[in-house]
Amino acid sequence: MIKVSIKQQGMSLVELMVAMLISLFLTAGIFTMFSMSSSNVTTTSQFNQLQENGRIALAIMERDLSQLGFMGDITGTDFIIGTNTTISSTAVAADCVGAGLNNASFPNLQPSHFRRLWGYEQGVSAETLACVSPNTNTDVIQIKRLIGPPATVLTATRYYAATESTEIVFFDGSGAVPALLNSRVWEYQHHVYFIRDDGTTPVLRRRTLSINNGMNNEEQLVEGIENMRILYGFDNDGDGTADSYMPAQNVTTLMWDNELFQRLVALRVFLLVRANEEDQSYKNDNTYTLGDKTIGPLNDKYRRKVVSSTIILENPILINL
């Protein structure tokens, strides 16, 4: 019988250590690639979020602000109670009353222009709205207008206005439509835009007017809007285009009330948009310019982006009304 001897041979210690070292390098490479891929996904996702939130916020504000001062067939005419203006509506119980003699939701009997527009910077301007509590160093803007198209079905909790070329009548949606010859009926709205945090997330908000709740109706519009700056554009030479832009604190009482030759014809809106979540791999030491104002560096881990738009007012108030 022939015996066959089979010799078993394994890896030497040196070979084993070399194999382990190679495996370690391969594993480290895989983890590095995974980390880079994860970081790229986070970065891309946050940039998309910033762009989308900024786009939505500007779209909402631009659609509303461009129509401020629209008052149907009587657009461009000042309101004088007892002459061309009648208020048959329920008084606003919880109103937002801005600066000036005539700056509540509805015109009053004060011998002053009814303000369709007013704004300020929280913590900087001397006069503010008591109805809202915005974040410090953010702008607030208050507007009033009729909302089109003309209403055919009325909502009981809304305010409306019947207008023709020389007269306007404000009334409740639950009441009878005023018998105003050749008039059309529109929903009336008073809006206030401002920014306030929800926990740690800044949110663009809007107050709206209703009969049952006054100006206490608050909408959360877009998350991540951290700061808002509005510059007011005035036409100084009557050509219909803005010759100068200025922040709210530089706009005088006469300019708000259109009692000078200057006429407000445009707004520049700047929004600082912030990601909702921190990125631990990122440090934000950037400086951001919002018109005439600079913010930063904030030295945190949130990504940010500035978006802006110039809004041409389609219903500028006439000069020296």
From TrEMBL:
Keywords, alphabetical: Membrane, Transmembrane, Transmembrane helix
Signal peptide: none
Domain of life of the source: Bacteria
Keyword Transmembrane helix: yes
Residue spans crossing the bilayer: 12-34
NCBIfam families: IV_pilin_GFxxxE
Protein name according to UniProt: Type IV minor pilin protein PilW
Organism this protein belongs to: Shewanella saliphila
Gene designation: pilW
